[in-house]
Specification:
The chain has one domain: Alpha-Beta Barrel (TIM Barrel). Helix content is about 40%, strand content about 15%. The protein is built from nine helices and ten strands.
């Protein structure tokens, strides 16, 4: 297994990576990063920016494992907006290939205008699933051209809400380039599942194993309150069954990347990193 970190914990995004940021990442023992790029990927300026950052990362022997772009809804009923999202998606794939990223990552987006990860009743209709399928199939044509896979993110709030629905949508695109960045915490949809994540983890690997390219490393816990509050927490502070997860991931992708995600600052990254490395060592899993 290999360890990396997503760029949530430092100000800015991919374009803000310099020698000091790269040194900070390597000093913590990471060999790869997941990075968000928020500019239009179709411009010459964006190409120059990613080339500069790629050169910086090369000096520090850091791989770009995951590369995200910023785009409007992939499943909106407004076809002009959806076609713009597809066009930007092609640009994201092209840039990811140009800088040698292992994969380009994509959000399924949402029908909720307030946020691409927020729930909406129309996220779960057949019509929305069909539009997302069509959008992903069109973006995947760029994967064929540039020879880099696209790894989807998923969540119970999104159209990619269950392992079975995800697999059906992937199969319906007809593309072998469509994969997933597995993030089991995003499937903790209720309190019983959160208190016992083992069955959820096994189902994810059983159903989606052939599509998994990498993993996001997080923990999950139930917070006090009169309504349901299920929160992400620093790895080691919640209920997530890391033993089962790491065993299943090692069996599937012994050389694959797990990336620490959604930590707010360097101290949280260090806490997560310490716990994860101790757990991996305890389980006897080789860390490359």
């Amino acid at each position: 297994m290999r360890l990396g970190v997503v760029d949530d914990f430092f100000p800015g995004n991919f374009s803000a990576i310099d020698d000091s940021v790269a040194s900070m990442i390597t000093d913590m023992g990471f060999t790869g990063i997941g990075a968000h790029f928020n500019a239009d990927p179709r411009t010459d300026e964006s190409l120059a920016t990613v080339e500069r950052v790629r050169n910086t990362l090369d000096k520090h022997n850091l791989e770009i494992v995951q590369f995200w772009g910023h785009y409007p809804s992939l499943l909106t009923s407004d076809d002009s907006v959806r076609q713009e999202a597809i066009s930007i998606g092609h640009g994201v794939i092209k840039l990811a290939a140009h800088i040698g990223a292992h994969m380009a990552c994509f959000r399924p987006t949402s029908m909720n205008p307030r946020g691409q990860w927020w729930a909406h009743p129309n996220n779960f209709t057949d019509e929305t699933r069909q539009r997302l399928t069509e959008s992903l199939a069109e973006i995947a044509t760029a994967c064929e051209t540039y020879k880099v896979p696209m790894a989807m993110e998923s969540h119970v709030t999104s159209t990619l809400d269950t392992p079975e629905n995800i697999r059906t949508i992937f199969e319906n695109t007809g593309s072998s380039w469509l994969k997933i960045s597995i993030d089991p915490v995003n499937f903790a949809a209720d309190i019983p599942t959160t208190y016992n994540t083992t069955a959820m983890i096994n189902e994810l690997f059983d159903v989606l194993g052939p599509y998994i390219l990498a993993a996001h490393l997080k923990d999950v816990d139930v917070a006090d309150g009169h309504v349901v509050h299920i929160n992400e927490v620093i790895p080691g502070q919640g209920k997530f069954d890391f033993d089962t997860f790491f065993h299943r991931f090692q069996e599937l992708l012994p050389d694959g990347y797990g990336l620490i995600e959604h930590r707010k600052n360097v101290d949280e990254v260090r806490q997560a990193n310490t716990f994860i490395r101790q757990k991996i060592d305890e389980l006897g899993i080789p860390l490359h």
